[in-house]
Amino acid sequence: MTQRFPILLAFILAMPLVAQKDFKGKVVDAKTGGPIPYVNIGIINIGIGTVSDEKGAFHLEFNQGILQLDEDVIFSSLGYKPFKIHVSDIEFGYNEHREIKLMPSAVQLQEVVVTNADTDSKFVDELVGHKNYGSNNFGYWKEDTALGGELATLIPVKKGLRKLNSLGFEVLQNNMDSLLVRVNIYDSDGKWGTPKTNLNTSGKNILHKIKKADTYCTVNLKPYSIFVKDDFIVSLELVQVFGNNAVELVIPAAISESGSFRRYASQGKWEKISESGMGYHLDTSVLVAKDKAECIEQREAKKKNKQNKVYGFVISNRRMLAGVQVINMRTKEQVETDNNGRYIIHAKEKDILLFSNAGYKSKQRRVVKEPTMNVILEMDGR
After folding, report:
1. For the chain, what percent of residues have pLDDT higher than 90?
2. Domain membership of residue 155 as a residue range
3. Are residues 136 and 43 in the same domain?
């Protein structure tokens, strides 16, 4: 039976329809006065929330039932101290935009201590997370999606110091021109193992734009220096939609027993929706004893040597292209073309390879029996 994760469907309050009040404003830095983009705004665990846009502007609609709540509207953003305003203290105006000032907080970098790392231990690469190998499971954002809504999955790992290098996920369907998501890395320290503490202590948002033609996305996590020591949770959060089409984004899920979580809007309540995991997978570097590291590397090398390889050149206008990303859509292995435009990747017959580079139209090619495959990319004229 197909498993569906009905994430972020239009949120309908169990209250009669009444006249709504508009809470509009702009979130700015209290010291510089500059706008703060993509601030989470909402009432904790109520399901009423949004995210400020790239210029710091926001718009919340409250009905009479919400106005009678004894609650606070919370403004929170990485690198800033949270700000609260009680619902009863909100001033409403048709064309008035209140200025909300957030005070910068001292960025507390994660304390990473590596004992005798040069002699006794070593970082080795390890792929963790979930992949979809053709199972008919998926999660989706659909219709009147609330900004700030998230779809999250637990990533089980062995205990030990681990750096997160990149996140990958497939896109089965995207009905919009493009949309902007924020990647959040959480500890599973919330109630019943739900997401709570954000492990991204860099003070910088991890943002990624998903374009309509994208079938696979890779997010570089190295600039944020995120380390974990145990299981952690990865989420994608919707922060901005481009174009006028209805929201419809579908991402594959995987058969697993990790568990997935959702919340409908910014600052909303987390709920567990399935035992399966979303198809989020991460390239990581884990610290292990040197003797163990050598065993792991040798084992992985033997596995790769036994696999079939495809190689070739990527060309545009009779010029070899360096830095083109090549992804095997089945195994999720990814490589880049070298300075001569050449690539080598493990693949077998009927695998799909995706070739993509900034400024060029992406191209997919199916692997055939021959081991060579040269690809011509066209410039993106948009």
Report:
1. 45
2. 117-287
3. no
